[in-house]
Amino acid sequence: MGSLSTGWKRALRRPEGVGSALQRARSFMMLTTLLYRASHLTVGVLAVAQRRDGHPVPYLGIAAALGLSALTYGSGLRRGWFDPRHVRADVLVTGCALPFVLYAWGGVRETPAIGWAMLLGGSASAVAAIALPRVQALVCLALLVATHLAGYHLVGAGRAVLGGHLNSLLSSAAMAWVMWWYLRRQGRLLDEANARALAAETQKARYAERLDHHRALHDTVLATLTTLAAGGVDANAPEVRERCAREAAYLRRLVQQTAEEVHHPGLGAALEEAVSSVESLQLRVTAQYHRLPEVPPAVAGAFADAAREALNNVRRHAGTGHAWLTATGDTGGPGAVITVVDRGPGFDPDGHVPGFGLRGSIHSRMTEVGGRAVVDTAPGEGVRVELRWPA
């Protein structure tokens, strides 16, 4: 349980860890903006390839845009998110400087020739809107808008072209920010819900382990101590001393072992061990076994523990000092049926409130492994407990 508890605490401390919903949202946003930039770069490559003047500056410009894109997105994919330094460099170089370089040294004087460089500003604004703090993102957006206004003025672009590109620039930033805000919010909510569910499962596992310990102590050590306190047996009798030694060893194993390390013997051996432990407290048990099937270890353990508690109840409440245990294979399938019978006074089941032994050590144990327990009794008729698996 210690490692499980440590695991969920670590998960709570690192909500943005690999595989978290927030990290998946980041990966989705990086992929979305990468595809957006790739579409703009494709337009740029085609535009430069169609030039016939052989001027080297446009080729150098598209090469710089490709290099900065590879740096920005490549480092982002490796780190799990964009590096703000690379985003700022992409905005300043690709989005702002490149159009003026093309105009000043690349011989670009027409609107279509400079349009691909302006187009890159749209994908630059989208990344800046999601990767930079709010003030820095607004500054970058203002610089990109100023670049569009000045660049298209230099080449004499019409108002329709200018308005269309400005709309694309601003809407790219707005849509990217809204999408990132929504995905980030949903990712955090999902991570918080997963952390709460993991904490609840951890608490549930702790409760189940504690309940198993309570049952084990109730059926063994507590039963022995109750019998000794009532004076029903001689505490110095060899069989009582042997049982006390076995249960002291059992307590040590219970403290040291996890549920996965507990050894469950076969059904016959488990039942015989349960009968022997009760007989050491001077309850005579007539046991019969017939064609016992192979059952899963957990089922054998549940059968034995439930039978031991049923025999403990005979010793405590029946007042006869004698019980009968019968174990057989279930004729209707691969399961098993075990009955524990006494000839004591019995009780009225309608007016009886089940105690922890009957409720937790018998019924719950069988239910947890897919079986069931049935108690058949009436005043003056003794008690018959039937354990059956599968139910």
Q: Which labels suit this protein?
A:
5 strands, single chain, five-stranded mixed sheet, 391 residues, alpha+beta
Question: How would you explain this protein's 3D organization?
Answer:
The protein has 391 residues and is α+β, with helices and mostly antiparallel strands. The chain is 68% helix and 9% strand. It has twelve helices and five strands. The chain has a five-stranded mixed sheet with strand order 1-2-3-5-4, with helices on one face. A hairpin with a 6-residue loop joins β2 and β3. α2 packs antiparallel against α3, α5 runs antiparallel to α6 and α7 crosses α12. The longest helix is centred in the middle third of the chain and has 61 residues. The radius of gyration is 39 Å and the shape is rod-shaped. The two termini are 30 Å apart.
